[in-house]
């Protein structure tokens, strides 16, 4: 070790700092409108959700759970009781914010992740470039993403979504790639032999075959973005996470526990929903 | 003009293709090339033509390059060298768009494990080839239904593949391939995944369909019995090369080399050889000219105990035995008609040897081979046995 001491410290941190500053300044004409418009949009969504009477949402979710699980009562009852509990604890507004964040970051993750996964499955070069990036994205501690998120988008929901995108998109990309590559050669050959174009092969054969795998990836993405949304409360994202954070800061175990339980309930409902949507088809 | 013409078609899998091709040129074996360059020779300079309406079977052991060859024909695998002409158009060099057109209009494929789309109904599966052509729903449903009717699955159109047995699934595969009315069917071990009885049925059904539809079929199998049953011609592959092309009889009777000979050794020859392969030139007498005395004379000459009788136009009339003829001579009978026996065992030229074997067992005289009433040959027990044993002379191209 000692023999390397003569090498001066390489200024990685300075370089990254400089790069982030540069990006922030140079692209502020992109970041600022995104922060404003997109932030407004998210607030609008959360407000509209909050406008709907809680009981209606709770009932709708319970009924949907009943049908999604193949007319079983388990998830329906759980949703009903769980959501009523959250409401009862006065966390309904926070729940709506958290849900909005999860919903929008998941949708964006899927919109971005699936095409990238498709690209990877079609090109060995793309795969060999993107895979290490995904590994990097997933092993980097999630908190680190908060820093550029703040630099680019200041604080609030938008940087939360940004951090969540980086953190939660990889599973969708990976599983899409995997799902398409797993389609049996005979089926791909069948598609080709009958004269399919590239996009016919993709949409008529590969994506339908890969659907189960892709949905498993999306399920993971949704779960990860939920966990990120909680972390994102540190940079001012509203919602249940913020309750946990403030309870932590004030060492109030009671409120912290209640907010934590609410997140768990939401997580279970979302998880079962996405899983069953997948199975149903 | 042949429908399919394959010319010097080669496929080398690997990274040192140029070097491998050179080694092929200098006659190096697949093994040597693999050891030296790490490349695998899939197909080595295959050339053949397939005519319209022909069932051309490609057979060989596992790894001999059959699947690679059939995939080169519709360019699912890019050829390393050579040409594939479909109706005179070279597939190997054409652009993607033309390739798609040929695949859509002229070539269809049937797969070993059926290659059906599990998330589509039987009808939707059969429609696939028409759907990608952009045909509208009504029309393609009609054609797909007709095609499914043809293979006897008209009642199952709304089921999913997994609900059907293997044999039925392969019928769907066949229906899908037939739906766009291609000129050529490419079938890669299409029946290999089926159990033996169903397999026989499918072979019969294919032959049936073939008499109706007259497609050009390239059929791959590693099963010689199957090849002999359905093939008009058979190509035998070894290590990527075609070692012999011929009719089933050619292959059995004149194996081109040791490899082919070993391949055909086990085959049940009785199923393949027919009357005309084993018949001999008949000794006859003419009922219009000859009497018992000549008959007796002729039988003595060649050492037979009976002889066939025809008229001047070689129409078969019956036979006479040596005993009857000598009695007749003693009794001064001049007319052969009086001692003529007409309970003649006859077969046609294409009677399988297996059935001849049963006939010849129960009759004292040689079996007569007739063609529209005319005597064209006789079969004696000895030549049947010889042929069954795979020896003795057998007539090819009679
Ligand atoms: N994609 C590929 N990459 C490398 N080698 C290949 C590839 N496909 C086939 N081969 C090789 O080419 C040779 C011919 O294979 P092919 O699949 O055509 O044989 P086959 O006669 O169809 O055998 P089987 O009866 O087992 O189906 C084999 O040595 C095989 O290992
Ligand atoms: Mg094969």
Automatic annotation (TrEMBL), chain A:
It comes from the Bacteria. Residues 95-274 form the ABC transmembrane type-1 domain. It is a multi-pass membrane protein. GO terms for cellular component: ATP-binding cassette (ABC) transporter complex. One of its GO terms (biological process) is amino acid transport. The keyword Zinc-finger does not apply. The chain crosses the membrane at residues 49-68, 73-90, 96-121, 142-168, 222-241, 253-270. Pfam families: BPD_transp_1 (PF00528). CDD domains: TM_PBP2. PROSITE patterns: ABC_TM1. Keywords: Amino-acid transport, Cell membrane, Membrane, Transmembrane, Transmembrane helix, Transport. InterPro entries: MetI-like, MetI-like_sf. It is found in: Cell membrane. Belongs to the binding-protein-dependent transport system permease family. CysTW subfamily. PANTHER family: GLYCINE BETAINE/PROLINE BETAINE TRANSPORT SYSTEM PERMEASE PROTEIN PROW, GLYCINE BETAINE_PROLINE BETAINE TRANSPORT SYSTEM PERMEASE PROTEIN PROW. This is Proline/glycine betaine ABC transporter permease.
């Amino acid at each position: 070790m000692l023999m390397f001491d003569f090498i001066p410290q390489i200024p990685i941190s300075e370089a990254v700092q400089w790069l982030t500053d540069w990006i922030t300044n140079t692209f502020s004409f992109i970041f600022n409108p995104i922060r404003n418009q997109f932030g407004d949009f998210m607030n609008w969504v959360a407000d509209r959700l909050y406008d709907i009477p809680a009981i209606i949402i709770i009932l709708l979710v319970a009924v949907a759970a009943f049908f999604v699980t193949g007319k079983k009562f388990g998830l329906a009852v759980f949703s009903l009781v769980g959501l009523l509990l959250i409401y009862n604890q006065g966390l309904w507004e926070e729940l709506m914010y958290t849900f909005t964040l999860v919903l929008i970051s998941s949708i964006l993750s899927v919109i971005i992740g699936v095409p990238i996964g498709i690209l990877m499955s079609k090109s060995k070069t793309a795969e060999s470039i993107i895979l290490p990036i995904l590994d990097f994205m997933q092993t980097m501690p999630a908190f680190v993403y908060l820093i550029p998120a703040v630099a680019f988008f200041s604080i609030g929901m938008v940087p939360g979504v940004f951090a969540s995108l980086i953190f939660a998109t990889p599973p969708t990309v990976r599983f899409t790639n995997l799902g398409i590559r797993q389609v049996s050669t005979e089926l791909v050959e069948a598609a080709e032999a009958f004269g399919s174009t590239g996009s016919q092969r993709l949409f008529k054969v590969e994506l339908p075959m890969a659907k189960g795998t892709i949905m498993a990836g999306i399920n993971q993405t949704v779960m990860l973005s939920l966990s990120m949304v909680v972390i994102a409360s540190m940079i001012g994202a509203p919602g249940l996470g913020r309750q946990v954070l403030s309870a932590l800061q004030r060492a109030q175990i009671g409120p912290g526990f209640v907010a934590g339980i609410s997140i768990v309930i939401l997580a279970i409902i979302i998880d079962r929903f996405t899983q069953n949507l997948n199975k149903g088809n | 003009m042949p429908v399919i013409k394959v010319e010097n078609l080669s496929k080398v899998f690997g990274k040192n293709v140029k070097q491998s091709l050179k080694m092929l040129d200098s006659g190096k074996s697949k093994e040597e090339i693999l050891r030296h360059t790490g490349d695998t020779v899939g197909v080595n300079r295959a050339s053949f033509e397939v005519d319209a309406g022909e069932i051309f079977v490609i057979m060989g052991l596992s790894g001999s390059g059959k699947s690679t060859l059939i995939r080169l024909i519709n360019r699912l695998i890019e050829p390393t060298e050579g040409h594939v002409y479909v109706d005179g158009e070279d597939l190997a060099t054409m652009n993607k768009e033309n390739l798609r057109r040929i695949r859509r209009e002229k070539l269809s494929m049937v797969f070993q494990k059926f290659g059906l789309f599990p998330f589509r109904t039987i009808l939707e599966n059969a429609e696939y080839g028409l759907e990608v052509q952009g045909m509208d729903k009504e029309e393609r449903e009609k054609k797909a239904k007709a095609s499914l009717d043809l293979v006897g699955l008209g009642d199952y159109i709304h089921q999913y593949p997994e609900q059907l047995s293997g044999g039925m699934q392969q019928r769907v595969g066949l229906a899908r391939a037939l739906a766009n009315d291609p000129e050529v069917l490419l079938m890669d071990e299409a029946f290999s995944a089926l159990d033996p009885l169903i397999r026989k049925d499918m072979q019969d059904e294919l032959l049936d369909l073939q008499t109706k539809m007259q497609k050009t079929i390239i059929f791959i199998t590693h099963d010689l019995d199957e090849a002999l049953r359905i093939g008009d011609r058979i190509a035998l592959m070894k290590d990527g090369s075609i070692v012999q092309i011929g009719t089933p009889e050619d292959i059995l009777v004149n194996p081109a080399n040791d490899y082919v000979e070993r391949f055909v050794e086990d085959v049940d020859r009785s199923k393949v050889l027919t009357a005309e392969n084993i018949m001999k030139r008949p000794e006859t007498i003419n009922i219009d000219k000859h009497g018992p005395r000549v008959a007796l004379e002729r039988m003595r000459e060649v050492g037979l105990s009976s002889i066939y009788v025809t008229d001047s136009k070689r129409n078969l009339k019956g036979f006479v035995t040596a005993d009857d003829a000598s009695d007749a001579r003693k009794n001064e009978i001049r007319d052969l008609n009086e001692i003529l026996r007409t309970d003649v065992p006859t077969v046609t030229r294409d009677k399988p040897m297996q059935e001849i074997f049963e006939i010849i067992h129960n009759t004292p005289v040689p079996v007569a081979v007739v063609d529209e009433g005319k005597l064209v040959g006789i079969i004696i027990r000895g030549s049947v046995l010889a042929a069954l044993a795979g020896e003795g002379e057998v007539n090819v191209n009679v």
